Amino acid sequence: MWAVATMTTTGRARADSYLRIGLGGAAIVAAVLGFIGFEDLIPRPGLEAGEGWTDIAYYTLQLFLLDAAPLQTMGDLPVVLDIARFLAPATTLLTLGYSVKAVYDSTYDAVRARRLDAHTIVCGDGAPALLVARGVAREGRTCVVISPGTASSDPAPDLRDETVLRVGGDPRDVDVLREARIDRAREVIVVTGDSARNTDVAAAVRTALDGVDTPPPCFLEMASPELASALAAYELNSGSPVHVEFFDPVTRAARRLLDAHLPAPEDGSLVLVGAGETFEAIREDLRRRDRTSEPAVAWTSTSPSGLVEFEIPENMVRVVVAVDDDVQAVQLGLRLLQRLRDVPVDVVVATRSSTALGSTITGQHVAGSSFGRARLNLFNTTDHVYDLSSLRDGVYRDMARVAHTAYVTAARKRGESAHDNASTVPWAQLTDDLQRANIDQARGIGAKLRAEHLAVVPASETDTEFTFEGAELERLAVQEHDRWCADKKKAGWQKGPRDDEAMTHPDLVPWTELSPESKQKDRDSVRAMPDQLRQVGLHVLRVSR
């Protein structure tokens, strides 16, 4: 099961906790002092004989309501009772004020929620929800957190007055989602920590968005990679107007780590060391990239126990360490750092908690350490999994990267280079606009496949390579060109000589008027679809008409 780092809130959150503890402590002190004082007071003249401890307890409780009967007739009181008769009502008034404030905060948030627009809705109250809320706050936008807990359990109470609102209630309740103005939201992110509850939230989201012209996308966390893959396939086949993307944190962490640290084939090879679910996810992702890359990615893997006899490859430039226990992972990374001190290599350790763990162990103030020519780096997978850009693009970004690799390979075979075509650079060097264009192309894959009676299913090791038959490739290429033209025109582009600044392009014409070279680019894009889907664990299947 995926674990995330325990995170504490600061500022106002800590002050609220201290206030609650202080009020509880003050009430206990007042009750104890009151009881002791009344025990001392009971034998005095003016009080009826025979009053026992139950009466004393009753008088003590009356202190909190400013109505203790013995105080009405007695003038000279014991010191402890004198303290208690002021302390008890003070705690009552402060508690009442705190309760009123909590109700006011909840009501104020509900009123503000009715005026929201282009906000992010987060369903959940754990560390992932906190990471997402902070990410939205850094963007300067509003985040609405829906959780069934009390106001005191807000995932980000220290941000509450700035950009985080809380709508109490169950996110599986359609009325609660509507109260959060889901119809005007930019996105919905569901990270409750329970896969079954998350799927129930997805159903409620679809119902709440029924009839909305432009429904916001919904991103749901699944604990199981198999379940996430099956639901992703269902979503691509459904054609639902409400886009729901399912992801599992282990697979997503593996992809993000390799996106950041996988060396280019010409730079050298990678060695994967470790054991556990993160290790297996990274190894499976490497296998997929190995099948879809030209030239192939060079990598090997071994368990920690196999390191004794492991021979270091001559062209190794990176070692990735993945062990489910963070302390063991960092310790293994440090052992490798010492063993490889004479090798110019980066040792990347995947951790699920804060990189401060590695900083503490290595004695550094940053999550990195050098030993000879080798260098240790920590990769906090939790931060990368719940990063907003990672959540928003998700599986489509992974598919887009695969398609771009295929595009660059085909362009180089045609003799094109970065001087002739700015799109032939590696993915990381693409402009934001070009990356977004690739992602938009990936988002349209489901619709094109459905038009040709093709379905998507979870991939398996027994799958045979899928190839398009007959006129399928040509029809899909026409669809892809039409989609590209529609997106360009919507963004303000017009037909004309290629000029990105003037937003003109010669290919903004009907398919029949395209040059043979441009038609071939669309065909190559379609041919890359099966590999795009295989990269994210999916397979294309032909169904009977």
From TrEMBL:
Listed InterPro entries: NAD(P)-bd_dom_sf, RCK_N, Ryanodine_rcpt, Trk_Ktr_HKT_K-transport
Species: Actinomycetospora termitidis
Signal peptide as annotated in the record: none
Lineage, opening ranks: Bacteria, Bacillati, Actinomycetota, Actinomycetes, Pseudonocardiales
Domain RCK N-terminal per the UniProt entry, residue ranges: 121-208
Membrane-crossing segments per the record: 21-38
Protein name: RyR domain-containing protein
Record keywords: Membrane, Transmembrane, Transmembrane helix
PANTHER family: POTASSIUM CHANNEL PROTEIN 2-RELATED-RELATED
Region (Disordered): 489-531
Domain of life: Bacteria
Domain Ryanodine receptor Ryr: 474-540
Biased composition regions of type Basic and acidic residues, renumbered to the chain: 489-504, 516-526
